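Build the 3D complex.
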Amino acid sequence: MSQGGPSVVGEFSLIRRYFQQAALAAAAPDSLPVLGIGDDAALLQPAPGQQLVISTDTQVLGVHFPHRYQAADAAYRGLAAAVSDLAAMGAEPLGFTLALTLPDTAADWMADFAEGLAQCAQDHRINLVGGDTTRGPLNLGFTVLGQVPTGQALRRSGAQAGDLLCVGGSLGDGGAGLQLALDQPLPAGLSRHQRDYLQQRFWRPQAQLALGLALRGRATAALDISDGLLADAAHLAHASGVAVHIEQLSLPAAPALKAWPDNTRNQWMLRAGDDYRLLFSLPPAKLASLQTEQPDIRVIGQLQVGQGVWLDSGQGPQLVSGPSGYQHFSPSSAGAADD
Amino acid sequence: MSQGGPSVVGEFSLIRRYFQQAALAAAAPDSLPVLGIGDDAALLQPAPGQQLVISTDTQVLGVHFPHRYQAADAAYRGLAAAVSDLAAMGAEPLGFTLALTLPDTAADWMADFAEGLAQCAQDHRINLVGGDTTRGPLNLGFTVLGQVPTGQALRRSGAQAGDLLCVGGSLGDGGAGLQLALDQPLPAGLSRHQRDYLQQRFWRPQAQLALGLALRGRATAALDISDGLLADAAHLAHASGVAVHIEQLSLPAAPALKAWPDNTRNQWMLRAGDDYRLLFSLPPAKLASLQTEQPDIRVIGQLQVGQGVWLDSGQGPQLVSGPSGYQHFSPSSAGAADD
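Done.
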């Protein structure tokens, strides 16, 4: 851990006690950092011929997760959201750092947080390599590092007219999961199993790393759905200089979402954030081989000459965002965001 | 910039408007990222035969910098503190990410912040490659990346009995500078020039990157002084398994510090944080050649068989910290840390 500024009491002992497990999450010897926690910085050895992929994500209490939360869940969700950006680049994880700002050192909070962090790190085979623990209003900063063979990173800018638009799995789970996280009234038809599914999808999302690897050399562009399908489709359209056409009836919804009215479910599939599914463009000739490896992917539209995002809900395509892209001017944040 | 969660209004336009300059700070073509701001993650190409160095530093309002501050200064100081960890590893900068959490989007604050960020990035030849802008209590998270030829990183653990203990320049400036930053009464003898010097040293510290490069193949261990000389010397002693002996009379103070009483100055040199000078161990045979390249370095003690940090103030060595190292159980934080 670096030594910048005053830190929570006993930074070193904190780290040793709580973060040891996350630091050794990916146990394969070749995935361990050359030098991990405890020096001024961590040392990593990318493999020859690889480019380095780096992304930073911040999670703020009351903005990215509700005030009523489990520390283990916040850790899991925060790291998974960051790793999702590696998946979206077609990268394999190298390691991550954690910038943890917290109001006080509550031992049970820390133990719970560290447990969720280690679980997520193990599930995604990524090691904690360093970070900084400071005192202040709760703030979780994750920086993830990955590697990808030179020239093979999945960008947002390569989509071509004629490509298929595909998604890595069900949409809208983030929106429904948020209802549970916020203790909103739930529909009567929702089974306990479906409830658990949505809770998991919200608090323990899985970054689609295997799909990202499978998309190398196949997808022409990719990103992860964190702002919502329409918003992220607009990013792809804008970066690639193409029009994205989406067919509403093709959007895959998990069975759990059937408990809500059609309109609610449709809005979540289109606009809810935090699904962490990969959205990508694929030449039609690549579809069959990809589907055999990744059976959960779905074709939800196609790319055409033009610009913007077009949605066909059964009455022909309607423009939902122009060439400058979609931006969330009124973010549907989780809980109050006014602290 | 990554797309995790709701962000400050118009994240993309914010980035384009304010952070363009910091993204192009190090203008040499080979130092530009392969892919910078605007995708899910940034892509960097480390040179062959290099290891990757990564460090994360958080700056919290009221903890790491006082409530009365200029946004440009906070940006400069925060980035420089993070880059100092690269210097301490003997690394050259590759790029950095910024996780910026701020309560609202005040255009003048952002413009001021971006100016300081760009200035620091230029001064240290490091480019902004990505980040995340979110809403919440002010929090600055810097993650810096650098590279160092494989096996040449300066660690904390290589110091040997018989090595000299050296420092990269004057000590205690951080303590005196904090007095100015907190609007504390100043001694009558402090000239305007000296005031400016201390203000610069506090708000615009320079990471000792050139010194770090010069220490490759020479120093046996190194770190940067951010917690205070005694505390950081304890880290070196503990990591290397040696005793660190410091001679109080050898400690270099800048002329500006002469305006304060001896006891105050001595305490700052020993205990004040945020000096960002490199502290390193050096075999005596390497001293002469290093001094010709880096004339500001000073020998302040030596390493001996044993453990802990020993201070000789003229009456023989006294043990100031045991083998488990020094930890700031009562951090001398800048301003209130109770928000």
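Chain B touches chain A through 90 residues (CB under 8 Å).
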